[in-house]
From TrEMBL:
Tree of life domain: Bacteria
Disordered: annotated segments: 427-449
Pfam family, one: PhoX
Compositionally biased spans, kind Basic and acidic residues: 428-442
InterPro entries linked: PhoX, TAT_signal
Database matches in PANTHER family: DUF839 DOMAIN-CONTAINING PROTEIN, SLR8030 PROTEIN
Name this protein carries in UniProt: PhoX family phosphatase
Length: 606
């Protein structure tokens, strides 16, 4: 397979066609299995799943709901740790007889809180294959649930302990219970996992009763300040009053961070790193720059929000010694946070919102990273470092960052250092009173999204300037507003709403989708990003009805592709009794993690 050389692993699999089947579809020559699903044992001795009779105590030991990020960290050739985010819950698909959030029992609310968070599960390889399954016997000392209900997190960095983060329960502002809406993430070069707290706003009520000076800040993060109960609220305040901002106005400030968990140290408290800023974090992915500093790339998934990067003060220490490990665990605690300003190189008149390529033949240009905070020093007028880090969106507004089409997963290729951004869609682009189309976000009412490639100047990931282009403008290739790096569009798969990105061992880019606006099921795609096959996008997999495709994760030996099937059967009006999907067991829908491998044991994709 020539692992390690960019572009050396040709993607020769036969693409699968778009479909609306209630099953998981993989290419000819591949097989797949469900690794773990909602309710399965995580902590040894967890009670068996019992539909309709699940307790919060049981759920706290079982695999959570709506798996999103997937990371697989090798222990040795035979064993690995699976680390998964549980972003949110669908109570209508979890509890028989569901009528409304208001009608849930307090214990059901607590089940939902315990179904949020993360799971760490020891896996073993099925001998000589790319298939992996949970270890079912023995101590499984790493197996662990992190929940919104009970897990304590330590706040680190310049905003930890600040007035914005103090509450009645935590007067020092340094310890938070729980993590919320963990969406994408990344595996760090030092063997930990980062996880993004995304749409934390939906868990809070009482913004109308918060102090007046806090209301604009709450509102900028999507928390209503004019009504008591925003529609769609999860009603968690019924189980824990800290979710009522009229009583605890700072509690919301304790979510929206990047979380770091060390799956190899079950005793260690996971941490929330304030140095990486607070917004609707999709995730974070790290690369070690040439000078040894580590750089984390991050997106804020909201229409017209921003793209960020963090550069550490300290340098990465290679090796597996305990000294190196302890040192590297501090890398994300201090550094410099930047937000992106992105400019096109074509005349504005050529960007008409239709997606038509400008005269120079492609969307692209230059950009720069605007410094917001370095250590304890703020670079934003009228805001302290703690202000900037806690209300990072307001800092981005002040410095004129570029309003993007919902930046989701942002990930550097570890082979080339180039960075890929999934811009999922933006129905409001170009609408009255909203930002018009620009070269990086070139379509008004953008339904299908685009991929942005960012190349740091001098190949230095700590650089403050970069070049960029759009290698893929998504949609039906028959639609003139799409672009696949100039590749023959009759040979590429239709794609809509890119969400997560990942790389295989040879540097191919894998893209999963959420909310396919072309009407078929979501799925997973792959394309080369270097060489003559750049833009030859092919569909590798589709997920069952109503699901989005999360993860994805390709193991370092290139033998296994993991995806998370999130919210199967999430269709309006569906219920446990009347499911829109019966994946994976033929009864009612359960989110689950799937592994796909080649039957002949060869490298995936090729
Ligand atoms: Fe949870 Fe931005 O997707
Ligand atoms: Ca996502
Ligand atoms: Ca990713
Ligand atoms: Ca999404």
């Amino acid at each position: 397979a020539g692992a390690g050389r960019p572009g050396s692993g040709a993607l020769t699999f036969k693409p699968i066609p778009p479909n609306k089947l209630d099953t998981l579809v993989v290419p000819n020559g591949y097989d797949h299995s469900v690794v773990i699903r909602w309710g399965d044992e995580v902590v040894p001795g967890a009670p068996a799943f019992s539909l309709g009779r699940q307790t919060a105590a049981a759920q706290s030991k079982q695999f959570g709901y709506n798996n999103d990020f997937v990371g697989v960290l090798p222990i040795d050739r035979r064993r690995a740790l699976l680390v998964v985010n549980h972003e949110y819950t669908n109570e209508d698909l979890m509890f028989p007889g569901f009528t409304s959030q208001d009608a849930l029992t307090v214990e059901q609310v607590r089940v939902a809180m315990a179904a949020h968070g993360m799971s760490v599960v020891e896996l073993e390889r099925v001998e000589n294959t790319g298939q992996w399954q949970p270890v079912r016997r023995g101590r499984r000392e790493y197996n662990r649930r992190v929940t919104a209900l009970a897990t304590k997190f330590e706040l680190t960095g310049p905003a930890a302990g600040s007035a914005w983060l103090r509450t009645a329960a935590d007067p020092k502002g340094r310890t938070v219970i729980g993590t919320l809406n963990n969406c994408a993430g990344g595996v760090t070069p030092w063997g930990t996992v980062l996880s993004g707290e995304e749409n934390f706003n939906q868990y809070f009520v009482g913004g109308d009763g918060a102090p007046e000076e806090q209301k604009p800040k709450l509102a900028r993060y999507g928390i209503p300040t004019d009504v008591r109960h925003p529609s769609g609220s999860r009603k968690w305040e019924r189980a824990d009053e800290r979710f009522d901002l009229a009583k605890h106005p700072n509690e919301a400030n304790r979510f929206g961070w990047i979380v770091e968990i060390d799956p190899f140290d079950p005793q260690a408290k996971p941490r929330k790193h304030t140095a990486l800023g607070r917004f609707k974090h999709e995730g974070a992915n790290v690369i070690v720059a040439r000078n040894g500093r580590v750089v984390a790339y991050m997106g804020d998934d909201e229409r017209f929000d921003y793209l960020y990067k963090f550069v550490s003060d300290k340098k990465f220490m290679p090796g597996k010694s305990s000294v190196a490990r302890r040192h590297n665990l501090t890398l994300l605690e201090s550094g410099t946070l930047y937000v992106a300003k992105i400019e096109g190189d074509s005349p504005a008149a050529e960007i008409d919102g239709s997606g038509k390529l400008p005269a120079d033949g492609g969307f692209g240009g230059r950009g720069r990273w605007i410094k917001l905070v370095s250590g304890n020093r703020s670079y934003v007028d009228g805001m302290t470092a703690a202000d900037v880090l806690t209300f990072t969106r307001l800092a981005g507004d002040k410095v004129g960052a570029t309003k993007m089409d919902r930046p989701e997963d942002v990930e550097p290729s570890l082979l080339t250092g180039k960075v890929y951004v999934a811009l999922t869609n933006n129905s409001d682009r170009g609408k009255a009173g909203k930002a018009p189309a620009d070269e990086a976000n070139p379509r008004k009412s953008n339904k299908h999204g685009q991929i942005l490639e960012l190349v740091e100047d001098r190949g230095d990931n700590t650089a403050e300037t970069f070049a960029w282009s759009l290698p893929i403008v998504c949609g039906d290739p028959a639609d003139a507003s799409t672009y696949f790096a100039g590749y023959d569009k009759t040979k590429v798969s239709p794609i809509s709403c890119p969400d997560n990105v990942a790389f295989d061992a040879t540097g191919n880019l894998w893209i999963s989708t959420d909310g396919n606006a072309l009407g078929s099921n979501d799925g997973l795609f792959a394309t080369a990003v270097e060489g003559p096959e750049r833009g030859h996008l092919k569909q590798f997999l589709t997920v069952p009805l109503g699901a989005e495709t999360c993860g994805p994760f390709i193991t370092g030996d290139n033998r296994s592709v993991f995806v998370a099937v999130q919210h199967p059967g999430e269709v309006s009006g569906a219920s446990v009794e009347n499911p829109a999907s019966t994946w994976p067991d033929g009864d009612f829908a359960k989110p689950g993690v799937v592994v796909t491998w080649r039957l002949d044991g060869g490298p995936v994709g090729s």
